[in-house]
Amino acid sequence: MLIVSRTDDQANCKVIPMSSTDPTRPLYYLLKHAQLRLGELIAAALAPHGLDGRELAVLVVLDGDELASQQQAAARLGIDRTTMVAFLDTLEDKGLVVRRPHAEDRRKNVVELTATGRDTVRAATAAADEAERQFLSQLTNPVRQQLSDALHALLR
Amino acid sequence: MLIVSRTDDQANCKVIPMSSTDPTRPLYYLLKHAQLRLGELIAAALAPHGLDGRELAVLVVLDGDELASQQQAAARLGIDRTTMVAFLDTLEDKGLVVRRPHAEDRRKNVVELTATGRDTVRAATAAADEAERQFLSQLTNPVRQQLSDALHALLR
DNA sequence: TATTGTTATACTCTATAACTATA
DNA sequence: TATAGTTATAGAGTATAACAATA
After folding, report:
1. The whole model's pTM is what?
2. Contact, A26 vs A14, CB < 8 A?
3. Which of A20, A124, A125, B154 has the fewest CB atoms within 10 Å, counting from its CB?
């Protein structure tokens, strides 16, 4: 299957073609399908925690550095402030974060994780890590390391 | 930047977080960003040919095996038949393909590449291959091979 | 009645523009 | 006047449902 769809959950990216007879597929195809498979594993691992990968990413950012406002968090995540509103609405409904007015500038919201939110981040991150370990378990240790090294080098 | 956006051209996939201080990023992050970078290179390489990666994928499928109908081609590409209609409208407007009624079953369309279409596929594929070569040129030959091998193993 | 291509429609995700409240 | 958060709206992309032609 040459996945072309952009938004389907199983196929949400552009693709360039592969020839199914050729045992050596284009790199873009390999990267895409590897990401797709791992993404499915991670999604399955996160589902019991009531999160998807993007929500976890938001939680991790909020759990990390002290962020003065929603907008700062949105900038860190590369999403629009209006999109951040929707994320926070969802996460607040789930009882994982709370919004409080900033002490000095009441236009701003300080977003904090609840105790449940912190527990969820911990558990969900562990689950995602485990999914990654499982995915990589098909490879020998040295090959695993080479894969990571090569990808890091490409992104340098 | 922890890219979370799903549809932005520079960031059209789900993500799980990375810690920017940690030199070892999660595999999902690495795969995603490698794909993103390569995708940009490929897009730039294809632009002079008036195509994006997905249109090239459609053309390659149409250029390959003899496909009896639009729907068969759509199935090969993992897209809906209604989406295929839109792709073919675009490609036909560009003069790269033609639709003809099937000789034996007049409900079906046989889709064929024009001479221009065939030339374009050849040139665009070469351009995409060159972009991939350029992207991989940062790696030594053995590391390149290890990357490819590891990804193939993961998708086995 | 079923199937192919097509069109109309609805849905999802996200950004832009407009509104409010603060500054 | 400018900025943070919010809401309303519009756009892109894709699927589902409905329709016409053919089998």
Report:
1. 0.89
2. no
3. A20
Residue closest to B14 by CA, chosen among B42, B36, B38, B43: B36
Name the residue facing A39 among B14, B56, B138 (closest C-beta): B14
Q: Taking each helix axis from N to C terminus, what angle separates B27-46 and A141-154, rounded to the nearest 10 degrees?
A: 50
- Distance, in Å, from the CA atom of B144 to the CA atom of B68, rounded to the nearest integer, reads 38
CA-wise closest residue to B111 among B149, B147, B81, B146: B81
Strands, E assignment, chain B: 97-101, 109-113
| Environment class of A91 (CB within 10 Å of its CB; exposed 0-12, middle 13-18, buried 19+) | buried
Q: Cβ-count burial of A13 within 10 angstroms (0-12 exposed, 13-18 middle, 19+ buried)?
A: buried
Q: What is the spatial distance between Cα B59 and Cα B54, in angstroms, rounded to a whole number?
A: 9
CB A44 within 8 A of CB B84: no
* B79: pLDDT strictly greater than 50: yes
Residues of B in contact with A33 (CB under 8 A): 155
Distance B8 CA to D9 C1' (A): 19
Between the CA of B81 and the C1' of D18, what is the distance in angstroms?
15
B103 touches strand D (CB under 7 A): no
The model's pLDDT over A76-126, given as tens digits with 9 standing for 90+, comes to 999 999 999 999 999 999 999 999 999 999 999 999 999 999 999 999 999
Structure tokens given for B45: 């390489």
